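Fold sample X.
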Amino acid sequence: MLFRSGCGVEARAAGAHWALGSEDWLRRLGAEIPSQLQIIGGCYVAKDRECRGAFQIHRVARPGARALVKRLKALGPVLVSTGDHARNAPEFQQWFGSELEAAFSESPFDKMRRIQALQAAGRRVAMTGDGLNDAGALRQADVGIALVESTAAFSPASDVIIEAKNLAKLSELLEYARRVSKVVRRGFLLSAAYNAVGIGIAVGGKLSPLVCAILMPLSSASVVVFTAMAARWEARRTFGEQSEISTIEQNRMSGRQESERDGIGRNMDKGREAREAHA
């Protein structure tokens, strides 16, 4: 069995060549698609380069997708790059609005080249993808955001991993990143001002070397404390206190579940030891 990224899968079985994938890919393999099988969002099956059937894939947009796109457009231009056929354009317009710019029939390499073209034009690109087909584009982007059903599951390399249920908070996440970037810059300014004052005092000989040795690490500590507290305040400002409480509660639940699993494991070990001793 051989997987073709962005195309489909092919294999040899029972002495025949089988292919399962997109319409364009099967045509490149030499298979003819009957007009009665040319369906929207179809996945086609071919045996020995002869189309034998098709599946129609029904999808729904994630909750809050249209409102999210509207908020993202307030931060900058938004482009949807998809491997779906252009026949799916009405479906995308229904999900995201008719004004959204979209590129169809894009392979993983097309997505990478599109990002490279934007970067060559001086744009900074954030890419959000939910599949391994997007791994190359996520890596090429200035900021790669992987969308996964569970953070414990395998996901492509990226700068940010966000659970699918939190997709609606993507615009808030980007806004939080901008605010924290400003916090870091303020931290640098604070450090520079602290050191400028300290150097002036040290040159004037107004402090002993011992006091200077104590104040120097305190400058680093003060910058770290300022940055941590300011970032925490920005998180509350962006996501609200309820989000922080939910995160803490999730961590507690996770810890409780791990403890329960550990307890079950210990009980099973004790039971196994008892049976072995009885034997």
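Fold sample Y, listed below.
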Amino acid sequence: MSLAQHQAWLWQAILAGGAEDAGATVEGGALSPRARLAIYAGGYRMRLLECMRASFPLLRAVLGERLFDGFAVEYITAHPSRSHTLQAFGAGFAAHLAATRPPHSETDDGDWADFLVALAAFERALCEVYDGPGDEGRETADLAIARGLRLLTLSHPVHDCLRQHQAGAAVVAMPARTTHLALTRVAYRVVVEPLNAAEHAVFVRILDHGLAAGLAEVRAGVGVEGLALWLQRQRRRGLLVGGARGTASARLANGAAAPAGPLPGPRAKRPQALRSRSA
């Protein structure tokens, strides 16, 4: 076989956990060819399993080590790494759990499975926001969207699991409730902010149609003074940055003509900001 064929064979053997014909390609020694190959196959899976454990500590705490490892190994087998870096390896874990979940039955409404999928999606988003772009060192006079802003809509308030984990308490499931979250990175720490439905709709509009469109919608509902308070709140949260007086965005916030939009709902009380683990 050529070098490329040898490499392809070894890759497939590692993915399969071994090869019946190992003796035809691998030389023996103190260990048999199959045993020697098993070292590479086992090391490959263990390294990826360690990566999954580190990326999903909340899910692991809820499921327990044995059950979590079972789900993770199934994912590793179904979705082997295709990149030179492990940074993106767990990106499909939530989708994998959703695709392989048991069907709903008359006695099980699927709430537990939905919770696990939501928790996996939340933890993956924490990793991606932490590893993604941030606003550290960014200087901008214009009002701008935080570079790392990520919106999530989940079936359960799984951010409460992060509170439990950070407080050193047991991580437990909670009843289903549609939950909107905004994630961003401030000073190299991930901030998680719950949003009410109206706030979420505004930020969706901002991401889809631009900052001016979102600000116009808020101003149409609460007026110029209300918009100024709203902007202060979003800056404190880290969801928006910049916005010195005299800039185009500041002029819009301070009363420049803006198209009308639907009335946003009342502002929710600001919850305590959550900070992720510090990588």
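Sample Y note: Confidence is low (pLDDT under 50) at residues 255-279.
Also: The longest strand covers residues 179-186.
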